[in-house]
Structure prediction request, 184 residues.
Amino acid sequence: MSEDVFGKREELIRIWESERRTRDLNATLMWENMKYFSGLFGGLLVAHTALVTFIWTNNQGTFPIELIQMMIAFPIAIIGISCCAFIDIRRRWSKFLLVGTQLLKLEDLLGLQQDITKRLNSWHKDKYLFQEYTENLTKYTSSEEFKKPKFVRWNSYTLMSIIYFIMIALGGYLLYIDIPLLLR
Prediction:
């Protein structure tokens, strides 16, 4: 006879703690993604600008083909790295939202999503013990619905995914500029 996992409060608390750590880890990894790729983009853009300036100001000189090829490699690297960063942060954001729904379900099973306004002496406007994402308790009926792209929260992570997309376009624009410079 199998035991009912929903009847074991201690097990649910352990699962809830594990999911909270997973959520926090995903938030940390998204922040690390932003720091790492932002620094990398900055370095690539500075190096590309310095190289183009060097070639542009010395237009009478001849340059080794490797130097010219490196000028083209920077925008290609920016495009490739931007695609990787964009995919990574979107994947981590999706995982973050999934864990958020799992936490809400666990909190509901543990009785943490019950109206507590009558039991509190202070914080009268807080209806739930854990206020995060509680507006979604009645708004969405499934985890998949909660994760859908139409559900957008404007924060540093979603804005950074837009910046990564812009970096892809910037890399394409730099290629568009560099190729005529290469051919002159």
